[in-house]
Amino acid sequence: MVTYVEENPLISLVEIGRNLRQDTGVTISVPTIHRHLHGQLFTMKKVVAEPVAMNNAANKQKRAEYVRKVMAATGSGRSVLYMDETNANLFLRRSQGRSRRGLRCSVKAATSKGPNVHIIGLMSQTGIIYWERRRGSFRKTDCSDWLRRALQACPLPLDQVTIVCDNAPVHCDLEAVAAEFPGLELVRTAPYSAPLNPIEAVWSAVKANMKRGMASSFSAMMDTTDGITQQEHRLRYLEAKMDAAMECINPVMCMNFYNHVQRHYAGCVALADLAMGV
């Protein structure tokens, strides 16, 4: 049974029973299969998709080179800052809930998710340096302008700063922006290396906070405010939840996020596989 699960994590208990019957002639009930797997410490989890190319030889080499650059910057006394963006809409909610056995767990939802609201942030080891939110699309020219504003607001000496960004299309012109600030260094993450970027953990914490707030105030979202449209009311509601969630990000959390990604460094330098969602 363990072999079946290790070969195919998506296999069902019924399929395991069918395979056992075909391979060994033994018939085992589904509850027995469940108890056996539970005893072997197998539990149901959310499925995380891992791109096929994530841990090929070329990407593992790029990941090792990226980690060496970050470690060299840190070792030379530079401040390593991470930038990234995320978005949210009215469909943001917890994916799991509770209900009585035999009944579906259903919640009321807006009929439309509405426009996306983006958060763009720059973080250091001691907290969020600069962030903005904006409605609608976020293009490469917007990203370049945002980085200029972030750097102008940065309290650190820019000739001792290393900015880390990923390879998203909106980041394609950031080298030109970095060249406008003498001494500033820009480093790009390796492909499929989100677990090495601590700001990804910031976005997870922000969205978890937003989900808590939105789950307890659904009626406030569905209400309307005199003088504005329903869409505008709901966008303001979403932005208020976003602002409140960003205020909860503190220096201790950022330090923990930095420390968490650094535990992968030794494995990356050794060309080990990197798993998603860890």
From TrEMBL:
InterPro entries: RNaseH_sf, Tc1-like_DDE_dom. One of its GO terms (molecular function) is nucleic acid binding. Signal peptide: none annotated. Residues 80-218 form the Tc1-like transposase DDE domain. This is Tc1-like transposase DDE domain-containing protein. It comes from Amphibalanus amphitrite.
